[in-house]
Specification:
Structural class: mainly alpha
Low-confidence stretches: none
Distance between the termini: 30 Å
Number of strands: 0
Mean pLDDT: 75
Largest sheet: none
Radius of gyration: 19 Å
Length: 155
């Protein structure tokens, strides 16, 4: 799997950060500005397969490489899931339940607080909600919970 995904991922990065800035006709509006603002930090997050963090926290959309956010989510899950299984295998069901509960609760509480306070959401709350939406941890936790239940109750 790594041999299929990672080479293409890094080729797209090379094009987006190396070749595209050199091509005058290929610049989208604000493309060079995006690279100049948080260029090194953004590049490092992309190199370490964390483009979804760029989307959520830096809000630095570089058109050519912005499609890589889903690969970042997938790779984060593949890193996170085995560690979770290794550390908490005996207590996995309650932990998955708590993850699902909090992942679903955070946006609801944020919405309720913003709605009843009459003020716009704070910067941190907005970024946290955006990050949860982008990494789709709750969706992965729900899927993992369903897979765990099916696996444990298979006859």
């Amino acid at each position: 799997r790594i041999l299929r995904i990672w080479p293409l991922y890094y080729i797209i990065l090379l094009i987006g950060f190396g070749l595209f800035p050199l091509l005058e006709f290929a610049h989208a509006p604000g493309y060079v500005i995006c690279l100049e603002q948080d260029g090194i930090g953004t590049l490092l997050l992309y190199i370490f397969m964390l483009p979804h963090v760029v989307f959520a926290y830096i809000n630095n959309e570089i058109v050519v490489v912005s499609v890589l956010w889903s690969i970042g989510v997938e790779e984060t899950f593949y890193l996170f899931w085995p560690i979770l299984l290794a550390l908490f295998r005996r207590h996995l069901l309650p932990i998955l339940g708590v993850l699902v509960f909090f992942a679903l609760l955070i946006p609801v509480v944020g919405y309720i607080l913003c709605h009843f306070s009459g003020s716009p959401p704070s910067h941190i709350a907005a970024k946290t909600q955006g990050f949860l939406h982008i990494i789709t941890l709750y969706a992965m936790a729900i899927g993992a919970l369903a897979a765990y239940i099916v696996y444990e109750h298979a006859t």
